[in-house]
Amino acid sequence: MDTMRDRFAPVVSRLLDEDPRVAVVLAEIGMADLEEAQIRHPDRVINVGIREQLLVGAGAGLALAGLRPVVHTFASFLVERPFEQVKLDLGHQGVGAVLVSAAASFDWPAGGYTHMAPGDVALLDTLDGWTVHVPGHPDEAETLLRHAVAAGDDKVYVRLSVQSNAEALPVDGSRFLTVREGRAGVVLAVGPVLDAVLAATEGLDVTVLYATTVRPFDAAALRRATETAGTDVVLVEPYLAGTSTSAANDALADLPHRVLGLGVGRRELRRYGRIDEHVAAHGLDAGSLRERIGEFLRAGVRVGL
């Protein structure tokens, strides 16, 4: 199966052909896959070189000129390094862009910590008005990328990963999907962690929700799920643990509830390893998730919540 990032160049190439407003801005990363598109659209495929602050600034300039910029590089170089430009050139100036990242939290362990960005979604959460898509399958990535480009002039972040679920679900760019129904708690799986969550909760009487759009947070779907499954909620996110706990707490603010946020830990892992070793080290493999989710739900039963 191809990866989410494998879909990026073909999709944006077609979008360039279809929509004269679309422009693509790169910082070397991904340029080789868009050489033919650049020949066809030399004024709308722009490579700024390894200058990530300029990458975002140039995208904002194109947006000010009326174009719909798609800005792409690794997550650490797209959100963290040029954060001031994301905040000011896009947010302060009131213009939008589609930021499309690669490498996710630790998709290229050999690149070291400079190429890891588990805090990207949490960092964007400090800003107003961002839509955040976290697809869990290449088909979903293609759908959500098209949603993002078509979203007027909004600010949209699309987080691509080489990690993937086995099958795509029919995502719509807004709602959480109910994948499994139960009565003893709600587990919300974000993007590529769904398969691990389904394996971890096999045989448990829990509702499993699936999120590929985490901002805006679908509070209505979470509340509906708690009507039958109770208000013990576990969030499993493929980035910094606890990123969405405040959103879940806000959704259930008028109800007695408990929320557990699972995800990538804050402790830096200083060995390269493989992706699956990083997943296990952060407790995001199916076995670890089953233990942590089960312990949390059992604690709720003991205290009568």
Automatic annotation (TrEMBL):
Q: Indicate what this protein is called per its UniProt record.
A: Transketolase
Highest taxon of the source? Bacteria
The organism's taxonomy opens as: Bacteria, Bacillati, Actinomycetota, Actinomycetes, Kitasatosporales
GO molecular function terms noted in the UniProt entry: magnesium ion binding
The record's annotation in Pfam families points to: Transket_pyr
Q: Where is the Transketolase-like pyrimidine-binding domain?
A: 2-168
